[in-house]
Amino acid sequence: MSSYEKEKAFALETVRQAAKLVRKIREEMIGPAFTKDDKSPVTVADFTVQALIGKRLKEFFPQDLLVGEEDSAELCTMSGKPVLEKICTYLKTAGISANAETVCGWIDHGKSTTGKRFWTLDPIDGTKGFIRGDHYAVALALIENGEIKLGVLGCPNLKEAGLTDNLGAGTLAFAVRGQGAWWTSLEEDSGAKPLKVSEHKQPFETIMLRSFETQHVDSPRMSELKRILGIKNAPILMDSLTKYVVLAAGHADLMLRFPVEDHPYECIWDQAPGVIIIEEAGGKVTDLDGKPLDYTKGRQLLSNRGVLLSNGHLHQAVKEAIQQIQHKH
Ligand code: AMP
Ligand code: MG
Known about the structure:
- The chain is of the alpha+beta class.
- It has 9 helices and 12 strands.
- The strands form 2 sheets. Strands 1-2-3-4-5-6-7 form a 7-stranded mixed sheet, with helices on both faces. Strands 9-8-10-12-11 form a 5-stranded mixed sheet.
- α7 (about 240-250) packs parallel to α8 (about 270-280).
- The protein binds adenosine monophosphate and magnesium ion.
């Protein structure tokens, strides 16, 4: 078997199963009466996915560590009890029988610290998109010796190959180091087709990706950057790592995140699965200073400032523009 074949097969099957389950939870739990204050469908879905993936990882790769976004502390309180019951019910629909204690054990598998070899998991990246009925992603990556080896993104509302003009039937995107980046249908394996970044070389022709949520964006610095680069095109607004698939597919050229007070450092699970897909599609990823992202500092990228993701061709020009902005502020 070629390298990482077993891990790839595991990750694809697991993320596909998890993403379909999460879609079902959303359809059943978020009716017209749903309000933003009620986080319950979100927590049920996040925890169910982390339980499912924790369970499967323990089974298939019992030696491996998992660094996941969630833990079961909240579920052990009185108010967590109905959520826990719902998690058990949904796992059952996926053919998994478990009691409350087992479920918490699977979820807490994700409390590992980082190590020589570990997986990162964001069970639902883009929670606000999930609630709104827009884009979100189930995001899983494998890191070994500080290098991302494999990444899988299950994007339940993304059109084929990352087309962005409307919501679609779901895309599963994946990459293994040195083996290219690929996509297939989320529903079933429709054959893997390659992802390739765009050829745009001129900053003025750039199409940027941006978080849908304006609180996640440093708008003044972003406007300044657009002005310096002469970018005229409106950005594509999307939630979650789904943006990284769109960039990898060549439908956009650039995405960056300035650190903001509420979010000074990126979490590893919010980057790793999408970063390898962009890199293997021919793109480039660094922090805003051009430094490679360092996955050896724990749950966050503590030695990096922000992220800069591009088709590669535009990277240097954008980095220089960022430097100009920073010198001014
Ligand atoms: P996006 O839809 O690209 O904004 O990505 C959502 C993810 O970004 C979440 O998983 C958050 O961890 C993270 N995030 C980015 N910026 C912020 C911020 N300013 N505040 C809170 N979370 C953020
Ligand atoms: Mg996230």
